[in-house]
What does this fold into?
Amino acid sequence: MIKIITGKNDFLRTQALKSSMSEFSIQYGDLGVERINCPEVEYKDIYNSITSLPFLVERKLIVLYEPSKNTDFIDKLANIEALISGSIDVIIYEPNLDKRSSYYKEIKKLPNFMEYSDLSSNELASWVVDYSKKNSGSISYSDANLLIERVGPNQLLLKNELDKLMLNSQTVTRKIIEEMTEAIPRSSIFNLLDSAFRGDQKTVIKLYDQQKKLRVEAAQIMALIIWQIHILAIIKTSDTKNADMISKKSKISRYSIDNGIKLLSQISDKKFESIINDSFELDLKLKTAPIDYDEAVLYFLISLGN
It folds into this structure.
């Protein structure tokens, strides 16, 4: 049996892997689980593991971490089903894959392909509410959105923050959120984009440098930029121009909607479409290619004013 676990959602992807390994261990025992970090081994090691019969156990589970980074494995991918021994289960675990690559297209054809994408803003707020309930806590929908605004849309980080907050109080309120969480620099990111759209390169460089001095990583800055672009897209495609109605319908704060409307007033439809495409390309490169994060993100911001 082959199972593919991939996708950008760190939380759901990690949970899926843990669940699959736990189910196997309960049925066949921990001795039957083997983990292989594919970028660090030769293909022959992978081959020997998936073709050899289990020893001292009824069945074996082999977890292949990032085999996409093993060139020889990619070349043999088409024959993997035929190679695997009948008493062996294989999980191919790929945190990030380029959907345009031939490897992605081939691996998607394999059975039990599971891809975990990031949740939308509405889905994320609902998940926060549901997660708190399942863990004997409670949080309102509006406060869930506040938590997302303060700590960001990363589901794994949200889970950790919720766990921390519910240790203090099972009922998570706005007051508790504001007292016990550190707000991410969203306002600074808004100012960065505002300056970028106006073509104010000096201010862009100054604000970006400030973020680095605050030890905000380039990947986090890019994640916040994408979140802001997501808000802009919601506003752009809304069937109303009323900020209150957009905020209520999207479950995004009025403050963020007002900022988004201000940013959109500075760019044309064609430019916004270009920004979406360019941000997607950059985000993909940051996750798949060995490039200088800071240089790439800063160049992207400066180019917005062109």
Remarks:
- The chain has a mean pLDDT of 85.
- The longest helix spans residues 218-237.
- The beta strands are 2-6, 33-37, 60-65, 88-94, 113-115, 138-139, 171-172.
